[in-house]
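Sequence decides. Our protein:
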Amino acid sequence: MNRIALILLAVITLAITSGCVNVKPWQREHLADYTMQPDRDPLGTAQAEHIWFSREEASGGSGVGGGGCGCN
C-alpha cells in the first residue's frame, strides 16, 4: 500500500510541475505576435459587442473598470 501511495504521489507531482516553463527572451516574439492580440480583428470585435448589447440590453463599458453600482 505504501508503494502505491508513493507512485501516486510521484505521478501527481510530475503532473503538477510539468506545466511550469520559463519562456526565453528569444521565444517571447511568438507570444507578442499580431495573431495573439485579442483585438486584432476590428470587425469581429464590433460584431461581438453588437451581440453582447443585443442580448444584455446594454452597451459600452467594455473598457471601463468598476462595478454596476456607479461607485467606480
In short: The first helix runs from residue 2 to 17. The mean pLDDT is 76. The chain has three helices and no strands. Residues 8 and 14 are 10 Å apart (CA to CA).
